[in-house]
C-alpha cells in the first residue's frame, strides 16, 4: 500500500499504457487523458484517508515568498516549450502573491486574464514543500495553456462579464472556494467574475501540471501530496455526476498515471485531444 511519503501503486498495465501514450505523443497525435483504474482510485482514497488534518506552517513570510519565487522561476522556464506549442509564442505568465487580509485568510490560487496566477498567502501557508507550491503554479499554468478561461467565457459560465472579457475572470484552485483559515474571508473578491471549470478541464490542467513539474526537475510524486493534504475531510473516492471537479482520489490516481508517462517522454510536448 502507498504511504504519505510518496510511494504509489503503478501496475504493469499502467506502464504499457504510458508507453502507448508516449508513442502517440511522439508522432504528434492527440490522445485521451490517462484513466486510472478503480483499484488505483481506491488506493488513492485510502492514502487520503490516512492524511492528518490540514494545518498552516510556521515558516516566516519571507521563506514563503522565497519558496514561491523559486517555484515560479522553475515552472515558468519548464513551460516555454508548451507555451510555444499551445500558445504560439512566449508564455508571459505572471505569478502574484495575495498578502492582503482576505488573502491571508483563504486557501485559493486563481488563474486570470493575460497569463496571471494569483496565490493567496493562506494557500501558501498550508503548502509543505517547494514541490507542492510548484504543483499549484503548474496546475494554474495548465488552465492557461489549454485555453480554459476563454472556453468558459464562450460557454457563458462567467456571470456579469462581457463576452471575451477574460481580464478579471478568476477560478479557485481545485474547487477550494469556500475554504478558510480561522475567521478568514472565503470570498474571492467583491464583484469578481467566476469561472466554473469542467471536470475534463480540471483533468487537463492536472495532466499538463505533471509534465511541467517533471520538466522543472521536481519529483512529481512529492508534488502529488497536494491532493492528499488539501482533500476536504470525508471526501469520497469518486466524484458524483453533479460535482464540478473530479474527486481528489481520482485526481491523485490520474496524477500517478501521468507521472509514468512524463518520466518516459523527456523532450516531448504533451498534446491534448481538445488542444490546439
Automatic annotation (TrEMBL):
Coiled coil: none
An MF annotation (GO) of this entry: metal ion binding
Domain Peptidase M48: 114-254
Swiss-Prot/TrEMBL GO biological process terms: proteolysis involved in protein catabolic process
Gene3D superfamilies membership: Metalloproteases ('zincins'), catalytic domain (3.30.2010.10)
GO cellular component: membrane
Cofactor note: Binds 1 zinc ion per subunit.
Keywords: Hydrolase, Metal-binding, Metalloprotease, Protease, Zinc
Keyword Repeat in record: no
Co-factor(s): Zn(2+)
Domain of life: Bacteria
Family that this chain belongs to: Belongs to the peptidase M48 family.
Protein name: Zn-dependent protease with chaperone function
UniProt organism field: Muricoccus pecuniae
Organism phylogeny: Bacteria, Pseudomonadati, Pseudomonadota, Alphaproteobacteria, Acetobacterales
Amino acid at each position: 500500500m502507498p504511504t504519505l511519503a510518496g510511494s504509489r501503486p503503478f501496475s504493469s498495465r499502467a506502464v504499457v499504457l504510458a508507453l502507448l501514450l508516449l508513442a502517440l505523443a511522439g508522432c504528434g497525435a492527440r490522445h485521451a487523458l490517462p484513466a486510472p483504474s478503480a483499484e488505483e482510485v481506491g488506493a488513492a482514497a485510502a492514502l487520503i484517508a490516512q492524511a492528518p488534518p490540514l494545518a498552516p506552517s510556521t515558516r516566516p513570510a519571507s521563506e514563503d515568498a522565497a519558496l514561491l519565487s523559486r517555484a515560479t522561476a522553475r515552472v515558468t522556464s519548464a513551460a516555454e516549450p508548451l507555451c510555444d506549442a499551445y500558445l504560439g509564442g512566449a508564455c508571459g505568465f505572471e505569478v502574484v502573491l495575495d498578502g492582503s487580509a482576505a488573502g491571508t485568510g483563504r486557501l485559493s490560487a486563481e488563474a486570470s486574464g493575460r497569463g496571471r496566477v494569483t496565490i493567496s498567502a493562506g494557500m501558501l501557508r498550508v503548502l509543505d514543500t517547494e514541490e507542492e507550491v510548484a504543483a499549484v503554479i503548474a496546475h494554474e499554468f495548465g488552465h492557461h495553456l489549454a485555453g480554459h478561461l476563454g472556453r468558459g467565457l464562450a460557454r457563458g459560465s462567467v456571470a456579469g462579464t462581457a463576452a471575451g472579457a477574460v481580464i478579471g475572470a478568476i477560478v479557485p484552485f481545485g474547487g477550494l472556494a469556500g475554504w478558510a483559515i480561522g475567521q478568514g474571508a472565503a470570498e474571492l473578491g467583491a464583484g469578481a467574475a467566476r469561472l466554473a471549470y469542467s471536470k475534463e478541464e480540471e483533468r487537463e490542467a492536472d495532466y499538463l501540471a505533471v509534465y511541467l513539474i517533471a520538466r522543472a526537475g521536481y519529483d512529481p510524486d512529492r508534488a502529488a501530496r497536494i491532493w492528499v493534504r488539501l482533500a476536504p475531510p470525508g471526501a469520497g473516492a469518486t466524484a458524483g455526476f453533479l460535482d464540478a471537479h473530479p474527486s481528489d482520489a481520482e485526481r491523485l490516481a490520474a496524477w500517478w498515471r501521468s507521472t509514468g508517462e512524463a518520466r518516459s517522454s523527456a523532450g516531448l510536448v504533451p498534446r491534448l485531444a481538445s488542444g490546439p
